[in-house]
Amino acid sequence: MPRKSNLHNQYSKNARRMLANRAHESEEQIAARNAAQQIRTAEIRRQESREQRDERLRQNVLRTRSARERHIATFRELDRERQQTNRALTRASFVRLAFEYAPDINYSAHTKIIIGAMDKICQYCQALKFRNETIGMCCASGKVVLAPLPIPPEPLKSFLAGESDDSKLFLRKTRKFNSCFQMTSFGATKICDLTSDGNNFVTTFKIQGQVYHKIGSLMPMPNDDQKFLQIYFMGSCEERETTRCLHNFIEQAEERAIVESLENFFENYNWRLNFHRCFR
Question: Which 8-state DSSP code applies to residue 100?
Answer without folding.
Answer: G
